[in-house]
Amino acid sequence: MKSPANGAAAAVTNGEGGEKKSINPELWQACAGPLVNLPAAGTHVVYFPQGHSEQVAASLKKDVNAQVPNYPNLPSKLLCLLHNVTLHADPETDEVYAQMTLQPVSSFDKDALLRSDLALKSNKPPTEFFCKILTASDTSTHGGFSVPRRAAEKTFPPLDFSMQPPAQELVARDLHDNVWNFRHIYRGQPKRHLLTTGWSLFVSGKRLFAGDSVLFMRDEKQQLLLGIRRASRQPTNLSSSVLSSDSMHIGILAAAAHAAANNSPFTVFYNPRASPSEFVIPLAKYYKAVYSNQISLGMRFRMMFETEESGTRRYMGTITGISDLDPVRWKNSQWRNLQVGWDESTAGERRNRVSIWEIEPVTAPFFICPPFFRSKRPRQPGMPAYSRGPCLGLVMISA
Amino acid sequence: MKSPANGAAAAVTNGEGGEKKSINPELWQACAGPLVNLPAAGTHVVYFPQGHSEQVAASLKKDVNAQVPNYPNLPSKLLCLLHNVTLHADPETDEVYAQMTLQPVSSFDKDALLRSDLALKSNKPPTEFFCKILTASDTSTHGGFSVPRRAAEKTFPPLDFSMQPPAQELVARDLHDNVWNFRHIYRGQPKRHLLTTGWSLFVSGKRLFAGDSVLFMRDEKQQLLLGIRRASRQPTNLSSSVLSSDSMHIGILAAAAHAAANNSPFTVFYNPRASPSEFVIPLAKYYKAVYSNQISLGMRFRMMFETEESGTRRYMGTITGISDLDPVRWKNSQWRNLQVGWDESTAGERRNRVSIWEIEPVTAPFFICPPFFRSKRPRQPGMPAYSRGPCLGLVMISA
DNA sequence: TTGTCTCCCTTTGGGAGACAA
DNA sequence: TTGTCTCCCAAAGGGAGACAA
To answer: Which residues form a coiled coil (chains A, B) (predicted)?
Structure first.
């Protein structure tokens, strides 16, 4: 679990929304979940239009139409310089997302790879927080929020237990810097921590239901922050009335193709909780995965998943096939080209296709300093930008 | 004021949203407003990507970025066959919109023009309805809705005045076919029509506020229908977290350009209450305007506007200039290329640019059967599709 | 004719401990 | 340790005529 604090140093939501307030990066990260790992501004990334398109399809609950044209000049991945990352939250739903400005570049050097690698390694440990899935009682109109004991003791300011009953007013800020006041009281038989006055306003204001999660943390000034995470709900059908989904998919491809043709910047939104996979990958992460991992059928691997209450755990799996996810549109793409099976058949909703940078092979444990930093392949003159290098599909030039 | 009943005969919302219910076309029209006039499916239209882009900009409250590339092969207007029109309403906000499937065609014949003209003339008179702007009392938590006397007598089933007080249960359906129940009672001193029980559920369910409008009508089976129209509210900032506005604008242009290049169908959404102007114009309306109206500086004209409470009135104006709205992107476009001044300076929020088909010149009153049906200009061989004809910019071939 | 106010009484729902999982 | 229930009482709000614009 990584903090975006360095990845999005200028984490101010002055993007399209024109918001004024800055988003707290630790709170954003906590809401986004432990698997989300934003690349750092100023580093190189690999952008997968196919994954981007997939996210939009997931957001709209609508598959890509066969009508959407191919962009034959748009490769399945673009090496880009990530100029800018800003953190946002939907003002209506509090859904977190990031806006990234990418500029296609035709090659990278050793220094770019080192910087990307350094950025990955220099991520701060995540800020501590507690996250509770709301119960029916928490969201009912009768009474407040039952605070897990350890959470209250760890995260809330200590109560004055000489009072009878011990109680205090809490002030917490959400992602939009809105202030929420709660009465925190320690009472009942047996004793427990509760949030009473102010809680129901919060629940109705955020339209929370049992199954959604609320999370509290303290920032460096010891101020309380709170965020929400909605239970992944059934087809909300976001079907936009602004643009047809075809036009959206065309827009993604055309914007990327235009940027690639002109080496001009373009903007994407990454929506961690809508999409099955990240589609903007730090260069070092991509490079290591492609270079280090000798993929073969039957290979065993581990992969991280998010648990309830914002934890992580690894599941074991086996590679059962290597093939194009979309052999028509995206031939020879590395986007989720590995077919996999999972050891535990429980909860069979794990994905049956993954990308190589998502997994940790268990057969190759000693790649602490893999040999890829020695690779110096000069850019071949006359080679068109984005043509595939022999192994990587990306052109590295010596510094 | 025209009804979309013939324009959208198959007015079923089975579009992207995947809704099942059919939208009542009369109710949709009443919600859309008296100026909205959908072209009929199966007829020819002129599509203006510039106007489409403008609507998206208005929806997003975001101007087109200079980064958006030009599509040099995309003309400022496309002659299209309108395959399909379906009516929709946003499930969250009840905002009405229409989905149209357009297919670029390279020319039209006399018959197409006649069919378009016939469809314009064969529109049914609009269904009667009443529309009231909600007062503070109507939307307060204390008490119900005060029904204007004439409206209640015209639209609601008659009360049994032998009851004391006279009262009945009303059942009304909204655009989504949801049922709303109201107690309709005639009481108070002096006597008046009121909706009591059920009203506040409707107000909170639709999130209505003073200034929004509610409208009631009866369908051909005498069933009550009700719709809403929201007051044009301040910057709602719909800034999507799915696609950057640049990508959206590129998507519009790329989709239209792709369709034009392949003569393949594409889909647009028309959002009558978001956009300042219609961007899909019935061929006959366009043709008549361009042929009949000799535009000159200083020319006087009238133009229809919508009043409060869903009426119409004409304002007089003068043409003060003829110039490109966007001389860089859309050179020689007819989209809002007329600069105008208005006789009444009151409420100066009238637009200072209009398109020729929006106005009625007052200097040429006798164009009942204009001479354009005699024009038979054979399509010139070797002329690329969409090239501008000498006068019209559209190629007509003899039947 | 109809918008707002105020009064009256029902309904809703915060806030407490009891109790059980 | 914490989720649900029920009880109690305060606050919210629907439904009526009064009154005035």
So the answer is: none
A194/A146 Cα distance (integer angstroms): 5
Residues of chain B with CATH 2.40.330.10: 135-210
Distance from CA of A167 to the nearest CA of B (A): 34
Q: Which of A14, A90, A244 to mutate to test the interface with B (most CBs of B within 10 A)?
A: A244
C-alpha pair distances (Å), B394 with each of B116, B206, B291, B335: 15, 45, 12, 15
Q: What is the pLDDT of residue B252?
A: 95
Q: How far is CA B13 from the centre of its chain?
A: 17
Whether the upstream peptide bond of residue B104 has omega within 30° of 0, thus cis, is no
**pLDDT of residue B381 exceeding 70:** no
Residues of chain A with CATH 2.30.30.1040: 293-367
Reading the block at residue A158, the tokens are: 């200590």
| Alpha-carbon span A122 to A116, nearest angstrom | 10
Residues 264-303 of A with CB under 8 A from B: 264-269, 271
Q: Tell which CATH classification among 2.40.330.10, 3.40.50.300, 1.10.3720.10, 3.30.2130.10 matches the domain A129-218.
A: 2.40.330.10
A65 touching chain B per CB within 8 A = no
pLDDT tens readout for residues B178-216 = 999 999 999 999 999 999 999 999 999 999 999 999 999
Contact A355, A334 (CB under 8 A): yes
What CATH code is assigned to A293-367? 2.30.30.1040
Which bases of strand C have any atom within 7 Å of the beta carbon of a protein residue?
1-7, 12-20
Domain with CATH 2.40.330.10 in chain A: 129-218
Q: CA–C1' span, B200 to C1, in Å?
A: 23
Whether the CB of A181 is less than 7 Å away from nucleic strand C comes out as no
What fold, for B135-210?
At1g16640 B3 domain (2.40.330)
User: How high is the pLDDT of residue A7?
Assistant: 44
Through-space separation of residue A304 CA and nucleotide C20 C1' in angstroms: 38
Contact B255 A258 (CB under 8 A): no
